[in-house]
Amino acid sequence: MVANLHMVDADPVADAAAVERLALWALRQYSPVVAVDGVDGIVMDTEGADHLQGGEQLLISGIVNGLRGRGLTARAAVADTWGAAHALARLTTAETTVVPRGDVTKAITGLPIHCLRLPPPVIQDLRVLGVETVGELSALPRAPLTLRFGPEVGRRLDQLFGRVAEPIEPLRTPELVEVARNFQEPIGAAETIAKYIRRLVAQLSAKLEERGLGVRRSDLIIHRVDNTRQSLRAGLAKPVRDPTRLAKLLCDRIEKIDPGFGIERMVLVAIIAEPLEEKQGASALVEEEVVDVTPLVDILGNRGQRLYRVTPVASDVPERSVRRIGPTAVETGADWAAKWPRPSRLLAYPEEIETMAVLPDQPPVVVTWRGKRRRILRADGPERIFGEWWLRPCEMQAVRDYFVVEDEQGERLWVFRAGDGVDTGTGSHRWFLHGIFG
Q1: Which residues form the DNA polymerase Y-family little finger domain (predicted)?
Q2: Alpha-carbon gap, residue 396 to 411, rounded angstroms
Q3: Which terminus of the chain is more solvent-facing, meaning fewer CB atoms within 10 Å of its CB: N or C?
Q4: Do 239 and 167 form a contact (C-beta atoms < 8 A)?
Q5: Which carries the bigger pLDDT value, residue 401 or residue 281?
């Protein structure tokens, strides 16, 4: 599949380097095969890279949202061919468009002929003949069209419908470290592919060592004999130059490579490379060796798992006291205040419960949660938490009273009452369950 990105607010007379910078950004973030499409667009091959973003729809939505964060308005489309994606990104009003595989004909038949990327004089002459849409043009005999307008009209039609390949020449910059291998005879066996992947990784590691770099993201680009490309992307939590580790990440996903009629070229590119500092290994006789979990993090991350860990945040409101950070991110140095016990499982959102309790300060004696009635045997509290008025003015008087309660089955719950039990201005006095201990 091919994704095309149209910059709605692009200036046709602006420096083309601006679009190239955006293409390099897309190259680093989304796909190993990215090229500039005119002065207002970017085209990329999503084959092999879309699953890392959760599919084509999430891929192009992420691109459009990323550009919106940079103050740019864009429309994106995904289709089987470059021509179809180019046309849909410029002629539809939807912010994102995904054409299912094989449905290109249905999607583009009614589009106007100027989507074919033909010279304006040719478009004008076709309109004089009464041709307005792609469907009308494709229904005309090919020979008279070629005789009058040359082969370009037929070539653009064939590219639009996927009858003729339109390869994407990927954008490359001098600072990218890459190695390649051409094959006199096409290869296709998984064992053979794995063998040459290891060789390419070894060559890439040697080049990175010369520059004192380690790879954070690498792309393996597969060129097939039918002039199509596939790609595998391997991301790492920290800069790495270990050939065995990088080769394993790529070889573990060989089953995603479809060699077709054979592979004639393989290219391995270090898309993101960072300085790699050499560290002195610790002696087991002097100090305890710290186990490095980043290899496991890399394996799980490249299988599509979204890994994170939580870190404390300076806030008394429970749902604001944690945030997600990367699995290998540097410690923030913050810690939770050791006042009252906190549950090991905090619900994403507090769930309303039915209770029997004496106001204002007594814990509930009966709790009904998710249709199950529980009799409370023991309780501890209340722990009063005030709202953070400096973040939300509506929390100026907000109060929560938290209790740790234990039912007859021995399960401990973390519940709270919204309000102080006296003044309804401090809360609704409804009860909620916010966490579970153990």
Answers
A1: 180-276
A2: 34
A3: C
A4: no
A5: 401
Contact 121, 113 (CB under 8 A): no
d(CA 410, CA 403): 15
* Predicted confidence (pLDDT) per residue in 280-337, tens digit: 665 555 556 667 788 888 888 887 777 888 888 888 888 888 888 888 887 776 777 6
Residue 29's pLDDT band (boundaries 50, 70, 90)?
low
Q: Which helix (H) or strand (E) holds 400?
A: strand 399-407
For 313-371, strand residue ranges (E) read 322-325, 345-356, 366-369
Token pair in block for residue 171 = 């954008």
pLDDT digits (tens, 9 = 90+) for 154-163: 999 998 888 8
Q: Give the CA distances from residue 339 to residues 120, 385, 400, in Å, rounded to whole numbers and listed in that order.
A: 74, 12, 16
Q: Which two tokens stand for residue 94?
A: 């939807």
> What pLDDT, on the 0 to 100 scale, is given for residue 217?
85
Distance CA 144, CA 423 (A): 86
Token pair of 300 as six digits:
């799980």
Contact yes or no for 263/225 (Cβ under 8 A) = yes
> What are the pLDDT digits (tens) for 360-388?
889 999 999 999 999 999 999 899 999 99
**DSSP of 114-157, one letter per residue?**
GGG---HHHHHHHHHTT--BHHHHHTS-HHHHHHHH-THHHHHH
- Cα 12 to chain centroid distance, Å, stands at 30
Tokens of 248: 């394993």
- Residue at token pair 């299988």: 303
pLDDT bin (cut points 50, 70, 90) of residue 54 is: low
- SS3 (DSSP) at 419: coil
Query: Residue 286 burial (CB < 10 Å; 0-12/13-18/19+)?
Result: exposed
SS3 399: strand
Q: How far is CA 219 from the centre of its chain?
A: 15
Q: Distance between CA 150 and CA 125 in Å, rounded?
A: 13
CA distances from 108 to 3, 91, 104, 160, 192 (A): 15, 10, 6, 9, 41
Task: Note if the pTM is more than 0.70.
Answer: no
Q: Are the CB atoms for 191 and 197 separated by under 8 Å?
A: no
Rounded (5°) CA angle 98-99-100: 110
Q: CA of 328: how far to CAs of 21, 281, 309, in Å?
A: 29, 19, 9
Of 430, 378, 26, nearest in space to 219 by CA: 26
Count of C-beta atoms within a 10 Å radius of residue 413: 22
CA–CA separation, 83 and 154 (whole Å): 13
**Looking at residue 367, what is its pLDDT?**
95
